[in-house]
Amino acid sequence: MNIILKNIIRFVVLILIQVTILNNIQVSGFVNPYMYILFILLLPFEIPNWLLLLLSFFLGFCIDVFCGTFGMHASACVFMGYIRPYILNYLSLRDGYEVGTFPGVAHFGFGWFFKYALSLIFAHHSFLFIIESFSFANFSETMMRIIFSTFFSLTLILTSQFLMFKK
């Protein structure tokens, strides 16, 4: 299947899952799963930075439209898209990344994908929840939300990797 068509389908499906199912899951206000960021995680390595930022903004904007959050998800997604090349550079293999591959458990193994996903999910959630609270008055509560939501989102994303991309 064409890579562009595959990413369009992934974009639509992840937004639908997020808006219809995952936005209705909240455990004591501390766990907010965000699986839609899997779209940014799975974009190909050779995507130009300007396109990565544009797609990140559009993804966050679509979530903002459905959630009524006025740019919080868009800004968190752009931040995630901005630091993604730096994280990839930090985690790069000795020979670099092959053209035509994309980040995933199937290509690079569980350990590499775990570190990659954890760092970007934590950055996204930290940015999102700090912008949402916009105060350090409840810093411990915000940190608990970041940690619990990161763990839950990471679990969902890793589970989806094992379900969708079996060898």
Structure described in brief:
The protein is mainly α. The relative contact order is 0.14. Helices cover 69% and strands 0% of the residues.
Overview of the structural elements:
There is one protein chain. The protein is mainly α and 167 residues long. It has one domain. The protein has six helices and no strands. Helix 3 (49-67) runs antiparallel to helix 4 and helix 4 packs across helix 5 (105-133). It is globular. The two termini are 18 Å apart. 25% of the residues are buried.
Total beta strands: 0
What portion of residues is helical? 55-70%
**Could you report the average pLDDT, rounded to the nearest whole number?**
90
Helix and strand composition category: mainly alpha
In total, the number of domains comes to 1
Shape: globular
Work out the strand percent. Answer: under 5%
Flag low-confidence runs. none
Termini distance?
18 Å
Highlighted features:
single chain, 167 residues, 6 helices
What are the SSEs and their pairings?
Blueprint: H1 3-20, H2 38-41, H3 49-67, H4 72-90, H5 105-133, H6 139-164
Helix pairs in contact: 1-3, 3-4, 4-5, 5-6
